[in-house]
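chain below, 381 aa
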Amino acid sequence: MRPIAAALALVLVSTPAALADTTAPVSMARVDRVAAALRRSPVFVDPDVSSLLDAHDRTALGRQIAGAGVPIYLAVVPLDSDDESAGDADYFTYLLHRRLGRNGVYLISDQRGTLDWTSYQVPRDDTLEVSAVTNGKPLAQRLHGVIDALAHAPAAKPSDPPVPDAPESYSSDKKPTKAGLAGQFMKTFFPALAVSGVLLALLWGVVAAVIGIARGVRGTTTTLRPRRLRRMAWAELVRLARAIGAAEEDDPGYPRAMADYDAAKLLWDEKQDPGSRFAVVVLALDGQDALRERTADPEPRCVINPLHGTAARRVRTALGGLSSRRQPMCEECAKAGRHQALALVIDGRERPYYEAPGVWEKIRGMDKDLPDHVLEYLGVE
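prediction:
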């Protein structure tokens, strides 16, 4: 129980004044610190996540960026709901660009190794292969792949991204701050703790259980935010169109790829909700699988995260919102003890992609005849 005791002691010696301040503005000190570091070197790794990239990785990435031919700024930082960006990589990038004042590609990785990037006045097409950022490889290898892709990207008109929405205010009338929560905790929990040590034992048990569960989950949920999702959907749709143009019409996968493209393009034109955008991604990837594997019936993609690739086998899993039948999974997910699906941000909340309203209500749990199900959802005969 030493960790709990130490934590309790730390809270007990905190000053009442600090606990009472519930309206302090969110500090920009970290953004200033990251910007200052990036003026000296194009690679910054926050000490709190230093285990993600060692010294050798940082040096190698810095050299690669120096020879990329476009300015790239890499920041590996923890992002959570209590920081200056409220955990939003887009908003952190916006703040960092304002502080640094330099155009270029801002490449951000959070504590989970999730990558995001934003281009400011860079004359390159910054749409990347899905596999470059979601192939399950260590972060350093994925970063090398992304930087290489950006270095060899085709020319495009320089532009600035739209200004992202600011996160909600941290004022006490909307959301309790860390300090406010601590004050409430002091008032309610410690008197009870003084009466009975049983609560402490229970608390320790809950913490141990949560740690055990977290260790059993394969990785951490990947979350696709609207801007990145839209960019990914369009990039994969264009990639499928190019693959179809390069294929022979007698390719066994050609009819399936065309059906996927027709369904994806109609969905892109008619629907803009997150579920539809992700369905465009899945359809486009399915069509590319059909052409690559030269088959009219490509393997379904991993149900946990379709970006992982095609399924290696079927495994029975208890995913909320899906039937309990055996589901297609990639090899890594099939070996994992617990599963947590890829999430989309829908109306400000993260939800499993297959629970997105709209098209996924039609195709949820179905991995056969995917384009036909989407066309039926759109009312196309």
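Residues 226-246 form the longest helix (21 residues). Residues 223-377 form one domain.
thats it, cya
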